[in-house]
Design a protein that fits this description.
430 residues, 8-stranded mixed sheet, 40% helix, globular
Length: 430
């Protein structure tokens, strides 16, 4: 197979949808001689912020001189973005080779063995990390935790960034039920860092930690950011970190949004756990790693003139975080809001808070079967004085937004990582 045929083959596995369980991934990894046992790992689950937290961690570990793997999902523009080592994406030839190897395992298992897309890509990532001599792998869990394909790891430290209602058809109808699913990544005697504040979810995480004799380290309680200051010229923030055993003053992060300080604190809590285990992480690596972290499509400024920001907010929690950035960090004359969202999301809770600040709203859709019909959204969203347009294609929506733009305005594109991924490809990569 060539590279495009390989990607098409992987994408064909999407037909199996989301099927939780660890039996299939374990069977594949057994046949691959369990590559996940040949590197040390850090495992991150949660509703929001896990990708940014993973990016901070990987950046610091790279600066500390460790060969570091990073596994995240979904990808924005290229499949290879999911699997990186020290910032270098997996190469097409490697994707082909691992895919053929894993397909041979699947064929040998017989017609009843039907692993999912995510299970195959997870196995590919672990095999690649092992073969390339990765020392630490920073692994972002997929949708859940307990039965997520990544939960075959025995991590050094884990994190559950937060818990909110999402994917309720798979994870549960309450934050307590979802916390129990995500808390399934907690391993015996392994520290867990969280920023969760909901009493019900927190009680569940504490219960699991007590059962498994694991320490629960709470951001905002056991570890904290202090003296936080915002540079409005570029959205960066500086802060002091007070941990359980370490303190770092004058740390700087370039990722925009107050919630990014919290994500950085979680990553620093994880790093404290590593240092406690004897891993050497110089102060200079912490400082440089945090300041140099980049995470595409999370409050990413892709242009200053015109002023265009991409953010993949796709659930109520993320929308509220984006709303705070709009209200507290950004200044603009008029807001031109471009939204494309999935139909299985809590659309009113995502869209309504953002729309109240918009002067122009452009409804569109990403090229994905789950995308919501923008014409249907148009019928549901009405606000006096708001200019609303429907553009079925994201490039057309962007061009219309640019035609409306005047100096001092802000174009904000959001609603789904697939929406902002397509937008980024059109604006930055084309």
């Amino acid at each position: 197979m060539n590279y495009q045929e390989t990607l098409a083959c992987l994408e064909s596995l999407e037909v199996y949808g989301i099927v939780f369980g660890l039996e299939r991934i374990r069977q594949i990894l057994d046949e691959l001689e369990n590559p996940q046992r040949r590197f040390r790992s850090l495992h991150i689950a949660g509703t929001n912020g896990k990708g940014s937290t993973a990016a901070y961690l990987a950046s610091v570990l790279e600066q500390a001189g460790y060969r570091t793997g990073l596994y995240t999902s979904p990808h924005l523009n290229r499949f290879s973005e999911r699997i990186q080592i020290c910032g270098e994406e997996i190469q097409p030839g490697q994707v082909i080779r691992y895919t053929e190897r894993i397909l041979s395992v699947i064929r040998a298992a017989g017609p009843g063995f039907k692993p999912t897309y995510f299970e195959v890509t997870t196995a590919m990532a672990f095999a690649h990390f092992a073969d390339m001599g990765v020392e630490f792998a920073v692994v972002e869990a997929g949708m859940g935790g307990r039965l997520d394909a990544t939960n075959v790891l025995d991590p050094e430290v884990s994190a559950i960034t937060n818990v909110s209602l999402e994917h309720t058809e798979y994870l549960g109808a309450s934050v307590e039920e979802i916390a129990r699913e995500k808390g399934g990544i907690i391993k015996e005697g392994v520290d867990v860092v969280t920023a969760e504040k909901d009493p019900g979810a927190l009680a569940v995480l504490k219960e699991i930690c007590d059962q498994r004799r694991s320490r629960l380290v709470r951001a905002g309680h056991d570890i904290k950011a202090e003296s936080v200051s915002l540079d409005r010229s570029n959205g960066s923030r500086t802060f002091d970190f007070r941990g359980e055993e370490h303190s770092w003053k004058g740390l700087s992060i370039g990722l925009m949004g107050a919630y990014q300080v919290q994500n950085a604190v979680i990553s620093l809590g994880i790093l404290e756990g590593l240092i406690r285990k004897g891993v050497e992480i110089p102060d200079a690596a912490v400082r440089r790693g945090l300041s140099e972290t980049r995470w595409p499509c999370r409050m990413e400024v892709v242009s200053r003139d015109p002023y265009v920001i991409l953010d993949g907010a796709h659930n109520p929690h993320a929308a509220q975080a984006l709303l705070r950035v709009i209200e507290e960090d950004l200044s603009f004359r008029e807001l031109i809001l471009v939204i494309g969202i999935f139909k299985d999301k809590d659309i009113p809770s995502v869209v309504t808070p953002l729309v109240k600040h918009a002067d122009h709203l452009i409804l569109t859709r990403p090229l994905h079967a789950r995308s919501a019909d923008p014409h249907a959204l148009f019928r549901e969203i009405q606000r006096p004085g708001l200019d609303i347009r429907v553009m079925d294609r994201i490039p057309d929506a962007i061009e219309h937004a640019l035609s409306l733009y005047r100096p001092g305005d802000l174009i904000l594109i959001t609603g789904s990582l697939y929406t902002v991924g397509e937008a980024r490809e059109y604006l930055v990569l084309s």
